[in-house]
Amino acid sequence: MAPMITISVIGGTLGAILLLHTPQATFMRLVPYLFGFATLLFAFGKRLTRALGHVVKRAGPPSWPVIIGLAWVQLFIALYGGFFGGGMGILMLAMLEMIHIEDIHAMNGLKALLGTAINGAAVVTFIVARQVVWPQGILMVVGAIAGGYGGAHYAQKLDPRWTRATVICVGTGMTVYFLWRY
Q: Cα separation of 20 and 129, whole Å?
């Protein structure tokens, strides 16, 4: 995992730097496509994971060529995550499925670890670049923590089909809105 964490930090940092150097008008033109991509990943992520799971044949530990290939995949995911982030978790689950990790709890733990490295690197990059507006940033952190814990609690009580459908509808709506607006 050390190479994957290192690659995640590098990619998250580069993605954040890319975002910092992207003009706002360009980013706003990209937003509907990024939302659309993330929504499609969410809608079809299980199929993608199943399809990619057969790419790497299981025969003991992954070989060095497989590890190098997965490192490039993770670098792309980390760049995307540092720049935008939506759908990053689904991409990582698909990548982990490629090496035939079958325990969903292990997959989610690894995804959380790599996602923390990517997001942490991006946050540090934004802090160093003095792009954080602290009062709003702190409010967002508190909201994200409360939403993460509260959302997980209530999500377990809801029918997953309704939750999934709601996320897809909201993502589609945001995509259409930003396509129409920009």
A: 8
- State the SS3 of 111-131: HHHHHHHHHHHHHHHHHHCCC
Query: Which of 36-40, 44-48, 87-91, 170-174 shows the lowest per-residue confidence on average (mean pLDDT)?
Result: 44-48
Nearest by Cα to 30 from 48, 17, 44, 18 = 18
Q: Give exposure, 145-163, as e/b (b: 16+ Cβ within 10 Å).
A: eeeeeeeeeeeeeeeeeee
Residue 13 contacts residue 64 (beta carbons within 8 Å): no
Region 124-145: mean pLDDT is: 94
Tokens 């033109």 correspond to what residue?
29
pLDDT interval class at 56 (50, 70, 90): low
Name the pTM for this structure. Answer: 0.80
- Distance CA(60)–CA(57), nearest Å, equals 9
Query: Quick one: pLDDT at residue 55?
Result: 60
CA 102 to chain centre: 20
Candidates 61, 64, 55, 75; CA nearest to 12 is 75
d(C-alpha 57, C-alpha 156), whole Å = 34
